Sequence to fold (1017 residues):
Amino acid sequence: MSTMTAGPAESTLAAADFDALSGEVTEPETIAGARAAAWERFNALPWPTKKSEEWRYTDLAKVGFEALTPVVPAPATAEALSADVREVLGRSGERAGVVVLREGRVAHLELEPEVARSGVVLSSIRDAADRHPEVLKRALLEAQPGPAEEKLWSLHLALLGGGYFLYVPRGVEMPAPIHAFHIVERAGTLSSAHSFVYAESGARAAVIDEFLSDDLEAETVSLHGATITGEGGAGIEYVALQRFGRGVKRFSTQHVTAGRDSSVVTFNVALGGDLSRADVTSRLDGPGSDSEMLALWFGDSNQHFDHHTLQHHAAPHAHSDLLFKGALTDAGSSVFRGLIRVDKGAQLTDAYQTNRNLLLSESSHASALPNLEIEADDVRCSHGATIGQVEDGQLFYLMSRGLTRRQAERLLVFGFFDEVLGRLPMEGVRARVREAIEEKIGL
Amino acid sequence: MSRFVTVARVDDVPENGTCGVMAEDLAIALIRSGGEVYALEDCCSHEEFPLSDGEVEAGEITCLLHGARFDLATGAPRALPAVMPVRRFDVRIDGDDIQVDLG
Amino acid sequence: MPRNETITELGLDEYKYGFVTEDKPVFKAVPGLSEDIVRQISHHKEEPQWMLEFRLKALEVYYSKPMPKWGGDLSKLEDTLDEIYFYLKPQDQMERSWDDVPQEIKDTFEKLGIPEAERKALAGVGAQYESEMVYHSLKEQWEEQGVIFESIEDGLAKHPELFRQYFSTVVPTHDNKFAALNSAVWSGGSFVYIPKGVKVEIPLQAYFRVNAERMGQFERTLIICEEGAEAHYIEGCTAPVYSTDSFHSGVIEIVVKKGARFRYTTIQNWSNNMYNLVTQRALVHEEAKMEWLDGNLGSKLTMKYPSCYLVGERAHGEILSIAYAGDGQHQDTGGKVIHAAPNTTSQITSKSISKGLGRSSYRGLCKVYDGAEGAKSNVECDALLLDETSRTDTYPYIEIDENTASIGHEATVSKVGDEQLFYLMSRGLDEAEAMAMIVRGFIEPVAKELPLEYAIELNRLIELEMEGSVG
Fold:
């Protein structure tokens, strides 16, 4: 990957003021105002501690935010696709467009002409602020994060340097996904990127966000936010494939809003980084809406993965189904904390939540906190969580067929993951995710 | 193999008192009871909390977070909610120095 | 089943123990908490100096700990605590003969059916009225075998060494705010010792009654079940209904030695103005078995999570919890199992019913420490919602540091199924009758574990159970 030159401001987060964070670009007032307000809120809020339920197992005090160098907003560049990005694209099947972001700043953006002609908009968030200020404000800038997320969300917004905006108009069906590459190259930085996906009624949208870096020597933090909105009858498929190198700590906050009869699939895959946290909220906002939430992770050495989810049933007759599976080896650790919340009046809710964990080594450990809060009576809700190991019988069978213990174990992990992979509708995306997992677990 | 490292002065640890020290990235609680100095890992085995903030009485230290108690000589748990021992270290006094065996 | 039985007639919402007995204490402290009150309690009990010091230290710890922000709504509790009586001594001494118990108190317990229960088949009975045990007796047969069943005060006075060896080792003062409060002002409760190999086949029973308005009850129970011994302890709790809130905060410490078995049953039926914040915990050694059977029907807010600390190989813990939350009630209950030794096993089963504006929450912990090889735990929670205004929550914590452990948790929430209702109604039951029958079926797996023939205060459950024969 090519090396970027440093941005204009090079102070640490501790020393930064808002002007230093703003760089030398002129921003639309919508964004500048929201960023300033977020910066103020960030500074006013205390860091969440391990005493709060949401951060009980991930200690933010151990992340040296203050010493990091924030990456400030910069104008979008129009660089050519690098060789490694082209290489991945060459193996990922069809796509409707490509976005490359470096430390959150849009460096390359292309949309297939045919898709563009159908009315689909793909731009930087900055450009969207000029052309679609209302929808951006409503869905992103004025979003209300939960109290435990607010500190990091405010920092994310305050640093919002780029990110992309995908808008699919009424009835338009994208033939293939947008493939976005979030690349982090500079060690010691704090950067932030946002994925904005909006599908009007009856539209179909698909996105794969792929997060990449080399192994970085200094602690580096990548913040990410996703705002995914489906109007009535829309269909959205969203995949976040996190394969950062070591040294990177990643925090992603994803908000899904599913309108009447819409259907949204989110799929988080965590493979890389030192610490990877994702807060995924699905708000079932319209009757008949459907949210499928999927995730896989595989942790080795001392990686720590933390997934928090909320299935928020705010409307009746909605359906949500969550399946999160993780496997850990070495001293890897993971947390799953999921909540199904059914509001008063959200009758005829169907909500399910399953978390399964495989522990492959003595030093690995996993925590599971599957929660329910139900305030309507005519519901079907259930959750299940298991923590265990691969079955001896299967392991010995494979070993008797000539595989080493490690190979057999990895093969079984892959089988364990397959149930989730199989639920991804788009074949090209599925192939890409499968390949990334194979590479990580070393099949 | 023993490897004694000086971590504090004898005066730093009063009778029925504690002193938290860092020795080669290890947090250690030095504790004096009945004239004897003991060294335990400075972290309760129940939930992360420094034992050097604890209270010493009759050969035991009480963690102030949830009341877990540990035997000073062995590190073994003596009251719930702790069920696991804390690591202990051999201690020797060399003149005015307290030395701990980091092995 | 009688034809016209309905949910209301099942008696879950009716409170039969709300009567008041005239209050004639021999000593009543001023309301509110202070160092003075703690000293008075210790003085009245003629305690050794170390216990007074223990209490005063605990009071400091209580003041230093913040009010919990999780669980139920405790925002008004601090005001309540300023108003309540922390110590109320109903009579001068504890009686061993029922005839010697003062008439009003006797009447109260007669109404609750205690002497009758004792006559029938209990191994021993203890009764606490306000702050003190007013009666404690153990059948000779057990006394001869060395079983100790005393008030906690007599335990301290008569068996000081045994007492001090175990007291506060299972639930230490600092454990939580309410354990600290109990440690400062404890009064009443039982001291139980089952010698090695002795099997007490019929239950020991303790009965807790709060009678006065704005009363705080802080019983402390210490139970030691020696190697290979077996026993079953049952407690029941009731109080009158007042417009002001009362407070109950017990601490129960149980040590179950190698190969022993102990079962602790609670039928909590406090009136709906009672805060009930209890710490119940058992230390379970090698091959021993501990069972908690926890029925929470009454109170305004209960926060109670019986725990098994499985510290010896092959120790087994079981928690069976049933909660009923009607209007104005929040049952925040569940259980904790801590696996700290190889091949330990545990099972938590929780059933809850929420009706009207009631809320029931399951809160649990399953923790497996590194080295607890082959540990197995299974948790099952079922919640039944009867009305659209009812609420239920499930908050399990699963923390696993051992890769050979096998852990499962499942929870379901449902309303009474239309199909079930229609089926029963097609068989001639009206809707209310059908509903009652389904509720009974739902709690039956727990109810059948209750020793109905002994525990008179299980009246409501008896109703549920006895009328279960389909008419």
User: Anything to note?
Assistant: The CA atoms of residues 23 and 91 of chain B lie 13 Å apart. Chain B is about 0% helix and 50% strand. The two ends of chain B are 5 Å apart (CA to CA).
